[in-house]
Amino acid sequence: MVVGTVLRSHAGGYLVHSDELGATLKCAARGRLKKERVSILTGDRVEIDEIDSAAGTAVIAARLPRENLLSRPPIANVDQVIIVQAPHQPEWNPLLCDRYLVHYQLEVPGARPLLCINKRDIASSSDLAALQNIYEPLGYTVVIVSAVTGEGMDRLVSLLSGKVSVLAGPSGVGKSSLINFLDPSLHLKLGVVDEDAGVGKHTTTYSQLYGMCIKPGQGAAGHVAERASWVADTPGFSLAELRHPEPNEVFFEFPELVALYDGCKFSNCLHLVEQGCNVLANLDKIAPTRYESYKTLVTEAQAEAKLRRETSQKVESAVKVVGGRDRGVVVPKLSGRYRAASRKTEKQQLLDRAHAEEDLEGGQADDA
Ligand code: GDP
Ligand code: ZN
């Protein structure tokens, strides 16, 4: 059986690349997979069958187990996420950058995302150095590039070498431009940055893995890529679609806060207003934008958690259990207004039934 990687999963059709065949084929999923509702996503490793090399088609017979799975965008078996941001056009937004970092750290635990700052050609070197000085000491790999001039691209290429990488970030920061730079034959359509809003238009509608022509030996010094390099562009998605973490989850995604946490008086300290908080006592050691981002994200998470609690309380108070503890059934408790309405309906139904019976009797009488 031949194994391949799904490069694109779109509208029930799949583009599958097989190293073994050295070809990319158009595939459909075998009926059994559809019946069993096996999801096949970009990045999935699959077994292919019924290969027709001349027509460039095959059938997906099975999906192999996944190493991991991103939900936004839905891509399987990701080695690394590269958060792409720009210093200008759209304007640098520290909260947005930290939001992306936190989101992808939660999505792929154990794999720190990389931070790629594009458009270095339109930023001052002191501004770029300031950003680098915030994120590098926290353990993030920061690569500063320009998809227009090509500066810094050698380093990006070496970071991509032999891996499956996902470029994530707001639209307009240059994700498609970076992929086009890496493989000019792709001609990905570029979005135009809306100068007024400073926000790019969503141009990509599904995620696809693009094979990069990164030759062995082109990677970091002494490193030879054994695997091809694959890069996925991601469709623009709304921030509202991101998973909302619990308040205490947010904190663990800020390495500089985690480092101070041991000194806090209370183990459940959220580092916002608490007395005896070691984070608050050491705020001068934290980049102000980072603490601002933390505060915003944790406050959002608290509001979300409260909403979730209230909603589940409402659901609980809206049902009652009848029929005893063991054999009880949950029935909705009706509000006064609804109960009145339902009583009326009941009465109406009785009346209707009486009329119907009268009609029936009348009919029968005629027949006789
Ligand atoms: P995406 O939405 O993240 O894929 O962004 P695009 O690749 O579509 O780029 C958005 C706009 O930014 C386009 O007009 C690009 O030409 C421009 N752009 C991309 N990279 C750079 C860069 O490094 N420098 C400058 N000055 N502009 C860039
Ligand atoms: Zn604290």
Entry keywords:
368 residues, 6-stranded mixed β-sheet, binds zinc ion, 5-stranded mixed β-barrel, alpha/beta, binds guanosine-5'-diphosphate, Rossmann fold, Ribonucleotide Reductase Protein R1, domain 1, single chain, disordered C terminus
CATH superfamily of the largest domain: P-loop containing nucleotide triphosphate hydrolases
Order of SSEs: EEEHEEEEEHEHEHEHEEEEHHHHEEH
Hetero ligands = guanosine-5'-diphosphate, zinc ion
Report the end-to-end length measured between terminal Cα atoms: 77 Å
Percent of residues in beta strands: 15-25%
| Number of beta-strand segments | 17
Mean pLDDT across the residues is 81
Low-confidence stretches at least 5 residues in length (pLDDT < 50)?
A: 193-204, 215-226, 357-368
Assign the CATH topology of the largest domain: Rossmann fold
As a whole number of angstroms, the C-alpha radius of gyration is: 29 Å
Largest sheet: 6 strands, mixed
Name the CATH architecture of the largest domain. 3-Layer(aba) Sandwich
CATH class of the largest domain, named Alpha Beta
Folded structure, characterized:
With 368 residues, this protein is an alpha/beta fold. It folds into 4 domains: 2-66, Nucleic acid-binding proteins (OB fold (Dihydrolipoamide Acetyltransferase, E2P)); 70-241, P-loop containing nucleotide triphosphate hydrolases (Rossmann fold), CATH 3.40.50; 247-316, Probable gtpase engc, domain 3 (Ribonucleotide Reductase Protein R1, domain 1, Orthogonal Bundle), CATH 1.10.40; 334-368. It is built from 10 helices and 17 strands. The protein has helices spanning 31-35, 94-107, 125-135, 153-160, 175-182, 247-252, 255-261, 278-281, 288-317, 336-367, and strands at residues 2-10, 13-18, 23-29, 45-52, 57-63, 69-70, 75-76, 80-85, 114-117, 142-144, 164-168, 193-194, 199-200, 208-212, 229-233, 319-322, 329-332. The strands form 5 sheets. Strands 10-9-8-11-15-14 form a 6-stranded mixed β-sheet, sandwiched between helices. A 5-stranded mixed barrel has the order 1-2-3-5-4. A two-stranded antiparallel sheet has the order 6-7. Strand 12 (193-194) and strand 13 form a beta hairpin. Helix 2 (94-107) packs across helix 9. Residues 264, 269, 271, 274, 277-279 line the site of zinc ion.
